[in-house]
Amino acid sequence: MRKEWFFDRFCGADIAVYAEDGRIVEANFEEKGADELTGNIYKGRVCNVVPGMQAAFITCGLERNCYLPLAEGASRFSTYDGEGNAREALSLKEGDEILVQIVKPPRGNKGAKVTSDLSFVGKNLIYLPRTDFLGISRKIVAPLVREALLKDAGKLRGKGEGFIVRTAAETAGKRHMKIESEYLKRLWRSVQANAATAAVGDAVFREFDLPFKVMRDSLGGGVTRIYVGSRELYEKVLSLARMRPDLGERKVELYTGAASMYREFGLSEQLRALPSRTVPLENGGYLVVDRAEAMTVIDVNTGKFIGENDLESTVFETNLVAAREIARQVRLRNVGGIVAVDFIDMLEEEHRLAVTAALEEALSADRAKCRVQPMNDMCVTLFTRKRTCAEATDFFLKPCTHCTRQGYVFSDMYMALRIRSDILDYFANGYQAVVIELNRKLMQTILFERMFSEEVRGAWKDKRVYFVPHATWHEEEYTVRGDNATVLTLPDDAQILY
Asked: Which residues does 318 contact at the CB level (< 8 Å), separation at least 6?
């Protein structure tokens, strides 16, 4: 199987895409200035303590106050096998200052969930400077290996500290684990130093950027090639790959083609379909994916698939195909929380068990922890997926202002990415000038945020790009055309890019 990663940076965003044999399995997005909050540590102040909820609300510079459970302790790490001494519930009062770490970002009208049991994540270890806990990933199953790794990790911790051995440590040596533990402890000392002079609301530690997190957590497992579309990003990915004995710089390649890298490798249309509500299945059926405040709901439909035998067999086959695609979609979209799947009704209990087993098997390849509940009599299955970062659709979509924000339209960032790909295609086909007609507000956003500034300074410095704004066009409406005329006839309100 061909396993490839694609990294690119443009329009003020980092994008990382993982594909297996040309089919996207995982997609990660991060806008500059809109950092993922999970993992960040802030200096906060207690603004309210609610004894009945065993919780406190902390102000730490975010839009909404954060929620802090007071008696969570090492139970936060229950997804790992391990043990430690239970810590007494925090005793806080209004006005106390405290260091807290984001474990769940804000969502909808809910503020972020935070913890005072801080953690620093490495490739092989998670360091817990304030939590007496020694744990190990459940994916490491060999008893002797588990015993040896726990013993090695135990030697690295001091009094009141903890370590969790991650799955990657199974192939790491003692020396690598020791070096990593010392590095993570230095991070903690730097946080303490920053906190000593920080004001309430200041971030004293920020999680690393997207390329680092992907290289740390996701790469490995026989990756065959890493393509990078930005020279600046290429140097970073190359330096990170050199630190990975399972990768090395030989697998990293700078993409220098004239067209968009994702379009060149046949991934653009797959990315474009990512926020779609409807997902086609390989047998002619389809899924309908709806996001709600508290969960994601997926409906399975036979569509054009009529089968060859009886109705039960047709439905069973469609549900099996749907189970595999659902596992791919939740990983691809970074769906977190509760997922409810309404499979097509099946009469035979054997078929229900087989579909549930197929869903569990497909989800087992996901890095995020998933738990599947048994299918009920109405063929509805619930499963949970640990939220690891913002959903990918948040990058592609924004609330629609024309329907009281109950619907969604494509985000300005996504529209800019589509326009950029089209511009690259015209330049790759020999045109020296490109004219884009588009919504006036979208044009103003692109210009004000200087989304194409890197291209203008680099690959487009000898080209011409003109915007023609339209006040009445929908946000998703635009046209692009190439032109090689020496003199162009354009409307008075047309603007040249920068």
From this structure: 281, 283, 285, 300, 302, 305, 344
The residues, any chain, with a CB within 8 Å of residue 446's CB and separated by 6 or more, are: 412, 416, 419, 452, 467
- Amino acid letter, 483: D
CA 114 to CA 398: how far, in whole Å?
A: 26
In this structure, which amino acid lies at residue 375? M
- How many C-beta neighbours within 10 Å does residue 495 have? 14
Distance (Å, whole) CA 112 – CA 104:
6
**Is the distance from CB of 131 to CB of 88 less than 8 angstroms?**
no
Nearest to 114 by CA among 218, 41, 171, 165: 41
pTM of the model: 0.72
DSSP label at 63? S
SS3 category, 370? strand
Write out the DSSP string of 148-207: HHHHHHHHH--TT-EEEE-GGGGG--HHHHHHHHHHHHHHHHHHHHHHHHPPTT-EEE-P
Alpha-carbon dihedral 29, 32, 38, 42, rounded to 10 degrees? 180
Q: What are phi and psi of 35, to 5 degrees?
A: -60, 145
Angle subtended at Cα 108 by Cα 106 and Cα 111, rounded to the nearest 5 degrees: 35
Tens digits of residue pLDDT in 132-176: 999 999 889 899 999 999 999 999 998 989 999 998 888 788 888
The type of residue at 22 is: G
Tens digits of per-residue pLDDT, 263-305?
Answer: 999 999 998 888 889 999 988 889 999 988 779 999 999 887 6
Residue 279 CB contacts under 8 Å (≥ 6 apart), including other chains:
273, 286, 287, 288, 289, 325, 329
**288, 326 Cβ separation under 8 angstroms:** no
The beta strands (E) that lie in 51-124 are given as 55-59, 66-69, 81-84, 97-104, 113-115, 120-121
The DSSP output letter for 260 is -
